[in-house]
Structures are given as structure tokens and as C-alpha cells.
Amino acid sequence: MSILRFKAIERVGNRTPIKVNVPSSKVSDYFNVNVFNDAAMKNFLDKEAYEAVVKAIKHGEKIDRKVANQVASGMKNWAMSKDVTHYTHWFQPLTGSTAEKHDAFFEPTDDGRSIEKFAGSALVQQEPDASSFPNGGLRNTFEARGYTAWDPSSPAFIMENANGKTLCIPTIFVSYTGEALDYKAPLLKALHAVENAVVDVCSSYFDKGVNKAFASLGIEQEYFLVDEAFYNARPDLMLTGRTLLGHAPEKGQQLEDHYFGTVPPRVYDFMVDFEVECYKLGIPLKTRHNEVAPGQFECAPNFEEVNLAIDHNQLLMDVMEKVANRHGLKVLLHEKPFAGVNGSGKHNNWSLITNTGVNLLAPGKTPHNNLQFLTFFINVIKAVHSHADLMRASIASASNDHRLGANEAPPAIMSVFIGTQLTHVLEELVSNKAKTALKASKTSIDIQKIPEILLDNTDRNRTSPFAFTGNKFEFRAVGSSANCANAMIVLNTIMAEQLKQFKTEVDALIKKGKKKEDAILDVLKGYYKSSKHILFEGNGYGDEWVKEAQKRGLNNVKTTPEALNAYITPQSKKLFSSNHIFDERELEARYEIMQENYVKKIDIEAKVLTQLATSHVVPAAIDYQTKLANSIASLKSAGVNKAAYGTQLEMVQEIATHIKTINDNVKKLMVETDKAHHIADTHKRAVVFCHKVKPYFDIIRAASDSLEFMVEDDLWKLPKYRELLFVK
Ligand code: ADP
Ligand code: MG
């Protein structure tokens, strides 16, 4: 039997454990060894260069050419002391993955010898030929130069491969005329905007000592693992990241026996291995466990400053995939690799922290601190309320569409969960009771109970797309394969905008003679009242919520082409341009790229599905049909009566019906795809792919899955769900 599926089953059965090389039982012995961090800089840079870099990191100051040369030289010496031969600018184009173009340190000299060289100019800026990266029409191909520029706020690191090491320098990627072509450039701008707004509010109203702040982010990463042999026998997994076909397994997640269960030994080895690689790169992984679906797992690092957390998450995904190969495993980062079981998300735990060490979303111990907490807390709610559609757009992708609203995933409706206790506090705040307390004395604002109340951390809601979890908000609707920058650009920008508005309103009241505390409370109360209908404490997965949300006027945009429209509304254009994140052209270009990306993803799925149905499913069905027909023929010729082969006849007929369904709909799908490709407008094309092309996937899948259920197991070519999910 040459069927790949059975060879795969055999291979999986023959796998032997892989020895993992753990440098030391103490992670602190090797944490950050491959990072040009503060300690390495002190070692390899002279005082002037070191101080220049620190200033660049802390205050965004420019590094001049001469110093850049010194930094580059120090960086090269450090890298070469670790056997690095090449360097690359490491950037995040809008393809979704990271990009590298390696250059050797080695440089031939005139006398026929060579030296190792790394100039400051090569560190600070490179000009990769960028014509093949998505640009949404921002650059004409005759003017295809883009350039990458060093981001000193994220340290350089060494990427180790089996046969060589490369120095990676995190960079932004912009067009020659300065428009952002990546995730990092606008992210840094959004972080800058939110920092300014936070510092302004804090230093004006709460603490003059606040002169810096940062947004923090801890990214929980969910993923599936399948054996490489099965993966290679599933063209859909290989090419689209998800299974386009597959009958539901007899056992799924109904027993709930996988969540937090014992990690299977082979998976454990893999986890240890990729954690070691991550620690060397300074990725502070803390947590690992099984997730809800069979074959699903999660890891989470300690939180870091947003820019670094995102670089680390991008790097983490890369490292996981590389390390998995050593273990004969494939990591599935797709949001919904398997129908009928949970999908994967990437919870974004986010907060705002000051240079004085205060987490602004952690309730304080004194009324004064609590007023500060309430200020930021309520402003987040207001920001999300005002820009819910943009938040929804920030997580939109072809792959996340399958997850939002599906099994154990947040719905496509944006809402905020804060827990019953905080709801109570806010209700009290706006009630007269709080008002009297406030009038009685300046310091007796009746919100002192928050700290005790919050110690109860069990007030959790797993179904909310955006939930307060004690000292941070958790944006849960972000997809597992996403670059979190999209979500973080939006969240930090709307927060910056919101805080600016807040400051203006409070200042106006103070100018009119209101006491500072009263002014703040007045504005906050107004915000709470006007945005409280975005708060939802119930079951976000239930149908009642869909109805209730509709009553409240909250949007429920289920598909990407429509969700993305929120990026280019007049309000969004104003929001992004006034905060200097994107100008209109950049926004339009980005929108275009995202719509285009949607089309490409669906188009590839359509091609893979039609190919699989035609060359894998239908032939297997015909084989089985032939077998049945032969049996009928021999029974007939043996002279038995029709009752003896009647059922077989029915089965032959049923198979024929499914084959016809597949054939007819494959043809229709191809016609619709072809028509869709002729639509010039990208958004309209995406809409047609979504609503005219994609619906055929379900029809074809249903027929194929019915055949998988009927056809003799020996004849079925594609690894089945039970094998993909359970064989380890
Ligand atoms: P859970 O959500 O299960 O309670 P944790 O409390 O451990 O889990 O937090 C999950 C993630 O949230 C971790 O990555 C953690 O570092 C991060 N986190 C904790 N505090 C903050 C914070 N102030 N800002 C951002 N992320 C945070
Ligand atoms: Mg969590």
C-alpha cells in the first residue's frame, strides 16, 4: 500500500525521543547570551558609544555617524566572539512574517586578502530591494527602493542555525519617500503618542515625578502540534495552515481531559528545546501548558515593553517552527486548523506603567491613587467604546474569521468585561452617594474599597474579547498567527487620543473654577455613563448576547473585508493622522494590502480545496464504489436475490450523489473564482471572495466529510482528524 497516510502512521510509530541540549539547569546562566544587551554593550563599547546608545534607547536621541561606527564595530566584535559570520537587518514587512537579508562581515581587500568589516552606515540603514514586499501602491516599481533603519529600542540578537550564526538588527522598514511599509514604524509612533499622553495626564494631575511611561504587553501564544509525517500528507495544512476537509473525530475535546493535563513526553521535549533557544534570545518564557483542544498547547512570557514584546513574539514563532523540525513536529499557528475543536488566540495582556514604577491599571491603596487608577481604567473603556470598530478591524484576517464567534473563541462583537465588583464601584461612583462623600471632604472619595475587592481574582470571564484581569486589560480576540502590532497600534493610538481629550475636558473644568479632583470625577462619570453599554459581563458565546448587542447598537461584523472598512472612515483617518501614526495615503495603502491579503488567502484555499477534492477524495470514493460494484456483481452472478446486495446498491448510489455534489460545486467554485479575479476594486473583490467563493468550501467539505465517513478506511488517502490530533 503506497498511500502516504499509512506510511505516515508507520513513521510516527517509529519515532524515537530527541535528546535536548540544555546548557544549564539554571536559566539565568544562559538567559540573554545571544543578545547585545546592556551587559554586552558595556563590555564591547567604549564609554562614548555606550552612552549614545543608552540615550537613543531611553530618549530616542539620534546617533551620529562617528559614534555609529564605534557601535557597529563593538557589535561586530561581540558577534564575532560568538562565531557570527553574517549580519542582517531584521524587519517586519506586511507579509506577516519577518524578513532578513544576510550580508557577510567578510570583505575582500585590494591586495587579495580580506577583512571582517561592519560600518556604522550598515548598522544604521540598509536599502534592500523592496519591490517584492507588499506596499499597497505606495511605491512604483521603478522607484522600488525602501530602506530599513535601526531601532535601538530593541536589542540586536544572534540567530543560531545548525550551520551558522547571524547577527540580527531590529529595524523599521519604510519607503524611500518615508511611508511605513511595516508594522514596527507605526507601532513605535503609537507607543510614542500614548507615552506622551500618559505623562501629560499623570504629571498634571497625579505625580509631577512622572516624565516617562511605557505600555506593557504580555502575549500568551496558543498553538497546535502535529507530526511532520501527517502534515506532509495533508496538502491543505502545508499550503493553507488549516484542514479544509476532515470528518470530525469520534473523540474531540468533549471530555475536557486535555486542558492542563500532563504534557505528552515528545511535546515536553519540544517545549524544553524551544524554551532553551528562547532564553538565549532573552525571551522571558514563564508558562507552558496543554490547551483545551487535543494537540493544542500554550506558552506565555513575562510582560515587557510593547515593542520588545512584539519582536519577541515574532521571534518566538520563528524559533518554535525551527525547533519543531528537529522533533519531527509541525507547529500550527493558524487560528482554526481544525473545524469543530477550539481555535488558537494570542491574548494581549496590556497595561500602562510609569517611570515611577506605577502600573496605572492596578488599583491603588489610597483614594488619591484610586482616582488615578479610575482615570486610566475608565479612559480605556471610553476609548474602546468610541473606537470599537477599529479594534475589531485590528484583529481582522481571513484566518481569524474562522475563530471569532466559533468554538471557545470571543465573538466578533467588541465588548469590555470588568467584573461585577468593579461594575459596582463604577455604579456607586456615578450615584449620588459617592457625590455626597466627595463633597464632605476632599480626601474621602468613597472609592476606598477597590483594593480589597480586587484581591478576589476569580472574577473572570473567558468569553470576553477585551477583559480586565486585575491589573491589566486582556485583548483576547487577537489571532494566534497575527503580528500583534496591528492590535497594539490601534489600542495605543485610541488610548493616546482618549487621554488627550480627557485632559482637555478636565482642564476646561478646572479653568472654570472646579477643584481638580471634582473636575476629574465629573468627566469620568460622564464617560462611564456614555460608554457603559460596551460593558458586558455575561456569556459572550451565547446567542442571547448577539441579540442583546444588536439592541445596544453594537456592531457584529463577522467577516474581514467589511471589518477592515473601519480603517478608512473619516474618523479613523483623522485619528491616525492627528496622532501622527499614518497619513491618509499610508492608511489607504495598508487597507489595500489587507484586503488584497484576504483575497490571496481565500484564493489559495480555493485552489487547494478543488485540487484535494478532485485528486484525493473523489478517487478514493470511486475505488470504494468499484469495490462495492464488484461485490454486487459477484452476488448477482451467484444468483442470490436482491435483498442480499440492496444495501450495497444504495451505498453506491449515495457515493455517486456525493461525488456529483463535489464535482458540480468544484466547477461552480472555479467559475466564481475566475469572475472574482476580474473585479478591479480590491475591496469589492474581497467581498465577492468572501460571500460568493467561500460558501462553496462548506458544500464541498460536507460531501467530502460524508465520503470520509463511508469509505473503507484502507482506501482513504488523507490523514484523518483522529490521527492528526491524537497520534503523538
Ligand atoms: P492569567 O491571565 O492566566 O491570570 P497571568 O496573570 O500570569 O495569567 O498573566 C498572563 C500574562 O499577562 C503574562 O504574560 C503576564 O506577564 C502578563 N501581565 C501581567 N501583568 C501585566 C501587566 N501589568 N502588563 C502587561 N502584561 C501583564
Ligand atoms: Mg489569560
Report on this structure.
- Helices cover 49% and strands 11% of the residues.
- With 728 residues, the chain is of the alpha+beta class.
- It folds into four domains: 1-20 and 221-344, Creatine Kinase, Chain A, domain 2 (2-Layer Sandwich); 31-181, Glutamine synthetase, N-terminal domain (Ubiquitin-like (UB roll)), CATH 3.10.20; 183-206 and 364-582, no CATH class; 596-726, Four Helix Bundle (Hemerythrin (Met), subunit A) (Up-down Bundle).
- The strands form four sheets. Strands 1, 2, 5, 6, 7 and 8 form a six-stranded mixed β-sheet that branches. Strands 13-9-15-17-16 form a five-stranded antiparallel β-sheet, with helices on one face.
- Strand 3 (106-108) and strand 4 (114-116) form a beta hairpin.
- Helix 11 packs parallel to helix 17 (516-531), helix 21 (584-637) runs parallel beside helix 23 (682-693) and helix 22 packs antiparallel against helix 24 (695-710).
- Mean pLDDT is 90; it is low at 434-456.
- The structure holds adenosine-5'-diphosphate and magnesium ion.
- Residues 220, 347, 474 line the site of magnesium ion.
Weakly predicted, low-confidence segments: 434-456
Residue fraction in strands? 5-15%
Number of strands: 17
In terms of structural class, how would the helical and strand content be classed?
alpha+beta
Number of helices: 25
Mean pLDDT figure? 90
Radius of gyration: 29 Å
**Which molecules other than protein and nucleic acid are bound?**
adenosine-5'-diphosphate, magnesium ion
